[in-house]
Amino acid sequence: MNQKIVPHLWFNQEAQEAAEFYTSIFPNSDITNNTTVRNTPSGNSDVVSFDIAGYSFMAINGGPHFQFTPSISFFVNFDPSRDENARENLDQLWEKLSQGGTPLMPLQEYPFSKRYGWIQDKYGLTWQLILTNPDGEERPFIVPSMLFVQDVCGKAEEASDFYLSIFNDSKRGEMARYPAGMEPDKEGTMMYTDFMLENQWFTAMDSAHQHDFNFNEAISLLVRCENQEEIDYYFEKLSSDPEAEQCGWLKDKYGVSWQVWPVVMGEMMANATDEQMDRLTKAFLQMKKFDIEKLVEAYQGK
């Protein structure tokens, strides 16, 4: 289990189609599992697991309740020191993501990169494609990025410190603060920082500009737990709103959605008969925090 934190994408009904699209346009990508969860409040829901360039995602058809926003996006790092065709490969991916999509920042040169663009694809998911040439430690190809706006603007440093205090194998990477004269962004707030949790890189940024979005459940961060002790720990540390606790989901104090999820659940779902799946679904729909023992008992029909 090399990726502990897995971005989880909530679609209306396009999870399978989107997974097929992403795995067709990114290198070294494939769909790893497809399961149908029946009789949920949203009806039957397909749950699709897929890898993009070796980075794991999950997606669900959950109905029209949540829409993607740029509050969580995904950096795609093209490094010329590792790929002599980095610029061409960046441009090709931009072109594919642009089909039916909307540029949020045009693909061009910026002070921080010779080639960068922010694109919202046809499903609403947003990607930041950047030509990098990092000095020092390399960054992975795909890195989730959090944008702190509205009532949590100015909290990017505090939030990342909070996450660093909770997860193991964690450390701070780069930090760049807004200088004076960058209004409406406040001097000293976070223009950009990256940080490692469980050996996975994430980035965070503040933006005081007018944005009509914030964090929501459309993109959650799913924490894969080996045992009940881990589930109890992460649920207690991360959850800040009892009203948001449902089926392993929670919201932290910055509004970011997480799922605290037992690894054994995925294994049971992947191998379940229809009858086992129905019992498992009925059991987990009644839970806020997952109880592994009760889930296994439901699966086994005890």
Using brief descriptors, characterize the structure shown.
36% strand, alpha+beta, seven-stranded mixed β-sheet, 7 helices
Architecture overview:
The chain is an alpha+beta fold and 302 residues long. The protein has helices spanning 15-25, 86-98, 156-166, 228-238, 263-271, 274-285, 292-300, and strands at 5-11, 30-40, 43-52, 55-61, 72-78, 102-110, 113-120, 126-131, 142-148, 171-177, 190-197, 200-206, 219-225, 249-251, 257-262. It has an eight-stranded mixed beta sheet with strand order 6-7-8-5-9-12-11-10, covered by helices on one side. The protein has a seven-stranded mixed beta sheet with strand order 2-3-4-1-13-15-14, sandwiched between helices. A hairpin with a 2-residue loop joins β6 and β7. It is globular.
